[in-house]
Amino acid sequence: MNPARLGKTTAALLALALLAGCSGDRPTDAPAIVTTTADVQQIARELAGNAAQVQVLCPAAANPLLFRPAEKDLAALRRARMWIRLGGGVEAPWEGAALDAAANAALRAGGSGYLNATESLLPLDAAPTPSDAAASAVGCLLDPVHGRAIARRIAARLAEVLPGGETLRENLGHLLSETDLGIFGYGLIEAHGAERLWALQSSGQLASFFADKSLPLHDRRPLDFLASLRGRKVAACSAVWAAFARRWELDLAVCVQPDPARPPSESEIAAAVARMRELRVTVLLAEPWADRATVERIAQQASAVAVFCPAARAGDPCASSYRRTIEYVLNLTASALRGE
Q1: How many CA atoms lie within 13 A of 253 on its CB side?
Q2: What is the number of structural domains in the chain?
Q3: How confident is the model over 191-203, as pLDDT tens digits?
Q4: What CA–CA distances, in Å, run from 246 to 146, 164, 249, 254?
């Protein structure tokens, strides 16, 4: 979690990516898997490896709440063996017509190729409005607890449509362990187990559990890092960041856009800037598709630093894996909060 490790981590991940690219070609007849969003595609790719062709409908740097499928997307759905939809109402404006046009019965609810990634994941079910539910779904994977649950759900369904179950289990284990290591480090996991650590973190008891324990410096560092985020005020372009803020106990004090499906008005921008100044909020979290000029203008007027989430797409070293994406956003947020 130390920002100084970013350069070394990037180099290591790039090397692993190059090795992975040389590990074997994907069969031309590999089953086609389609996802709505790029972050779900990222997880599905890490799990399936070369056993499937995993395509995405909504481009990585585009707002999923504004996406509408084109003919090429309908063609992808026609060929697909499986569709991993995000859920939370994100696909609601176009799903029915698109599936009618694709005429692929397996992709409909209850079909053999249908998977709703966020189904039954709280607090999505408790979102007060459809807009809030959709925003929660879009930002869901910024919370690794949700990410781990979704990875398990995807792996279970992939096991039904792909050969090589052992490889799939290995890939799932690797994704989970890498994500856990990126947050807690090897020492804490070895001593207490990842599931227990996540349970403590989720219940807000992580700090108190270790408060009176003597730990080596390298085991104390992840805990100190997480403690440095706790209770700090941040602003966000929209409620897409709610899951991220909730997971790391950040105080999401200001949301610029009441509706994440449309750009903020000038009056909303002015109100957000005034509120950020009043509360002395110095960090503004932005989605990959947020207009950079607008975000930087808001940050400048509020004397804040803009933190952009990287788009989960191949070739971006900031988002070359699920672990890397989470670590990058966390480190960037912590650095901004420290004024670095």
Answers
A1: 20
A2: 3
A3: 999 999 999 999 9
A4: 12, 37, 5, 14
